[in-house]
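Assemble and predict.
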Amino acid sequence: MISAYSERLLVQEVAPRDGLQIEPQWLETADKIALIDRLSRAGFTRIETGSFVSPKAIPALRDGEQVFTGIHRQPGVIYVALVPNLKGAQRALAAAADELNLVMSASQSHNRANMRMSCEQSLAAFADVVALAREGSTTLNASIATSFGCPFEGRVSAERVLQIVDAYQELGVDGITLADTTGMANPRQVQALVTQVLQRLPASALTLHFHNTRGLGLCNVLAAYEAGARRFDASLGGLGGCPFAPGASGNICTEDLVNLCAEMGLETGIDLPLLLQLSRGLPALLGHAMPGQVAKAGRNCDLHPLPAGL
Amino acid sequence: MISAYSERLLVQEVAPRDGLQIEPQWLETADKIALIDRLSRAGFTRIETGSFVSPKAIPALRDGEQVFTGIHRQPGVIYVALVPNLKGAQRALAAAADELNLVMSASQSHNRANMRMSCEQSLAAFADVVALAREGSTTLNASIATSFGCPFEGRVSAERVLQIVDAYQELGVDGITLADTTGMANPRQVQALVTQVLQRLPASALTLHFHNTRGLGLCNVLAAYEAGARRFDASLGGLGGCPFAPGASGNICTEDLVNLCAEMGLETGIDLPLLLQLSRGLPALLGHAMPGQVAKAGRNCDLHPLPAGL
């Protein structure tokens, strides 16, 4: 049964990175900075702010340096940078990212498609990044993409994911993210895997990253929460897509998650009205509708007037 | 914890009634019949087929008689008619509906807005319908709209809903539906209310009707399932809207629910590939996109080819 309602749930905002990554329309650096600055005042303690990947691979995020140096940092907010390799880590550290997020896929074919190398090559390259980060105070998170399923290979076994969790821990990372990159997880699978991973890590070091591609994102959050997870990625407006499912949702929507938590009595510390205001500005900023629901429907407490004549 | 995966979940398809109810574009009677006939072959045991309300109130469903008399009935499928009053019940029985579904809201203001009468007047009118249905073999279901929240009044108390459950049972109905008419329920609330209602009714007599207005429809299904519920309404493609939330989802999407069940190992008996085929035909039929996700994303097992060059 769903329990422990009084506990807190940590939401990491990922719209500026994962959300914008495959946006076809270029978002000006100043608009990115303004969005991140507003998110910084909404109560998030962690914001995935940008990435330091090849500008050819992800042109939408080619301004990582300018974004990181342009934002107004709020005390208590950790600004995270996605880095694919040592060169990216060096750029991120030069831009004073508070945390680096490494990523490798659980499935070989997805890692080759995404990173152009095998999983073994990815892990070997991560050792250099860890050594570099250890020189300063920057923390390191490592993500496992396709942790629940791969669009090329299908179901990914828990054994495979646990093997990578062990490898990440041997490298000495501070946190691990299980990512359902293309929305293939189901609540039963999530509960089983999270239970196993939490035998290796404390809940404070585990993040779950769900996509809503098949409508199960928030179901998977609740299943993970039930299994003990307390940290979740989400994207303002549900910004972010899936390259394999045109028209389908991508990342779970931050304000929908925060609304769910608020309705259930779970603390997030996030200002939902401000979030809704920001989310409702995204269609004008990006030129298309967002999949998030609460921005359209309003909160439960936003009551409607009675029809005329009653 | 989520348990009892081997149990069966009954899905009642409601697209032909609740789904079409507020469609602005008229769907020809022949198209409605063709849709219902195809749904009849997808494995559903219950289809909410039409309504016998005033054609002025719901013009989209003004052809209830023609639909009920035109469909090709499959053995084992119960064809349900929504009826607002005795006159509607007489029309539904004349059209040989297998089951009548009555509806009243838990909140007075929503019942007045929807039915133009008080809850007490609705209940009094239902007694005549029950007496009429008892003359034949037609079964009776009674729905409680706004069971979890009212768009005019806010949160609805469990006590109020239980009071109506008791009144319905005194009337002698065969089944009761708790409807989250405008998508205001949350999983914690659902679990608590379903647990209480199942102390009064067997699971075989209780249906849950969720809307996905705020993205929580499937979370609420799982919470209700956990609390012992086994019957759920859903609408092909997520067809159906919410008059108070333009652009937001309405009913939970049948194929998204069936896909969730399939991934979790819960039996529904429904042919998912056929359902996806039918759902993918809806945008052409109705002139707009549907909120359902799996029809866009495909099933997990619909794998993608590797990118060129790998």
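The two ends of chain A are 41 Å apart (CA to CA).
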